[in-house]
What does this fold into?
Amino acid sequence: MNKLDQLKSMTSVVADTGDIEAIRQYQPLDATTNPSLLLKAAALPQYANLLQQSLSKAGADQNSNAVQLASCVDHFGVGIGAEILKIIPGRISTEVDARLSFDTKATLAKARELIELYGKMGVGPERVLIKMASTWEGIQAASILEKEGINCNLTLLFGFSQAVACADAGAYLISPFVGRILDWHKANGSKTEYSAEEDPGVISVSHIYRYYKQHNYNTVVMGASFRNTGEIEQLAGCDRLTISPGLLEELANDNGTIERKLIAGQDSGITERVQENEAQFRLGLNEDAMSTEKLSEGIRNFIKDQRTLETQFAALAKAQ
It folds into this structure.
């Protein structure tokens, strides 16, 4: 078997893309999207009709306001998600507007709205994960949504404090970002190159995985944001890994051997269960410069791509 097939035998592989053809080719269990991936998808010819349909469903025209343009993006994201669900057996992750990352009430409203949009397309909540940033407000929203039967994917997760809060909130799944952790350490540390074994992103996700398993959390750990296949191989055995088409291709073309690195129940070196209140969460996040900076940066970048996509919808509406 090639490395991708070997990986699938020990880890659930998820496609980190909105490109339906790539998803069809690599046959992942689930797929994830975000504002940046939606922006890329909007440039693909196969989504031209969906862009027009999203305009119509949102009631957008040349005088559209900010609410209508945001609705266009929601319809577009759900439309792509519904198409992807036709070719994967599992779930699609669809992201809440990142501008709501510090507003629990608004996040709840948007999450319920997205689930309603999926319902109108014949897609039940059991096939959707609602994504939101791992801010305190996002985590509290996830806690409420999980009790309503709406499962959540807590994204932009960089530190242990975030992971602890997500698990205690009962989040269905977390997406710790491996590559972006590595990026920060390369830019701010004493080294510019790391082996896969010493990669700080790999070490962080491995620590979270072992902590969750030792303390019997049900929250799924899904490593994300990979820079190379070495990081992926070091996390073989993780619950799930969401991987870009380029790295999926590299794994599919490599006939080498992958060794399982993460095993539930293995000695984690951790003995105590951590419990956090809001003050402890915020202090822990503040003490971790990398997590604080990458969380803020990630939210800003998602907002930027959201606004760019809204601008494209505005231009499309005016051209009609």
Q: What stands out?
A: The first helix runs from residue 3 to 8. DSSP finds 14 helices and eight strands in the chain.
